[in-house]
Specification:
Chain lengths: 119, 107
């Protein structure tokens, strides 16, 4: 069965960077891209960007352009998202989700990774 | 960017009530829309895809309709386990955009 397992909670200081991973299993990794979504405490869902696991093409939300980088490692079926120059506004749960063109994406989600930014 | 306007932002309802949530897209998105349920501390769970197709394993009291710019999620008879927050999501184009969410609370 499809599983997306994310890395554990992180606590960072303002100005630091964080890299969250999402390991996929149960299907052919390169058949599906991934989106990353975050949810600040008590807030709604916010899309950060997408990466193709086939050719590493990316689309980033304009708000995060230049501060977020998504990468993949096909040898381990893992996608990564790095956020730099963290502020307290980046405190949120970060989710990965399968996202692909020509189908019905966001069918499977990771369990979420809490990133806390505090001095 | 496509804006998704979801309403109401919250509602109070009783077990057995019929509940309707609406999402309006700022431009046509065909049927490239899904509905998601989120409970506290959990990842979103897809209920509906292609605007009106029920996800396998989801109870038939959930239904979706619409195409183009106007979409609805209906719960025909609200059950205790349905109290949660619901989101629509368009995947017609980038950036992907979510509705603001509807919190369904117990009356």
């Amino acid at each position: 069965q499809v599983q997306l397992v994310q890395s554990g909670a992180e606590m960072k200081k303002p100005g630091a960077s964080v890299k969250v991973s999402c390991k996929a299993s149960g299907y052919t990794f390169s058949d599906y891209g991934f989106s990353w979504v975050r949810q600040a405490p008590g807030q709604g869902l916010e899309w950060l960007g997408w990466i193709s696991t086939y050719n590493q093409n990316t689309h980033y939300a304009q708000k995060f352009q230049g501060r977020v980088t998504m990468t993949t490692d096909t040898s381990t079926s893992t996608v990564y998202m790095e956020v730099r120059s963290l502020t307290s506004d980046d405190t949120a749960i970060y989710y990965c989700a399968r996202d692909f063109v020509g189908g019905w994406p966001f069918d499977h989600w990771g369990q979420g990774t809490l990133v806390t930014v505090s001095s | 960017d496509i804006q998704m306007t979801q309403f109401p932002s919250s509602l109070s309802a009783s077990v057995g009530d019929r509940v309707t949530i609406t999402c309006r897209a700022s431009q046509g998105i065909r049927n490239d829309l899904g509905w998601y349920q989120q409970k506290p501390g959990k990842a979103p769970k897809r209920l509906i895809y292609a605007a009106s197709t029920l996800q396998s394993g989801v109870p038939s009291r959930f239904s979706g309709s619409g195409s183009g710019t106007e979409f609805t999620l209906t719960i025909s008879s609200l059950q205790p386990e349905d109290f949660a927050t619901y989101y629509c999501l368009q995947h017609n184009s980038y950036p992907r955009t979510f509705g603001q969410g509807t919190k369904v609370e117990i009356k």
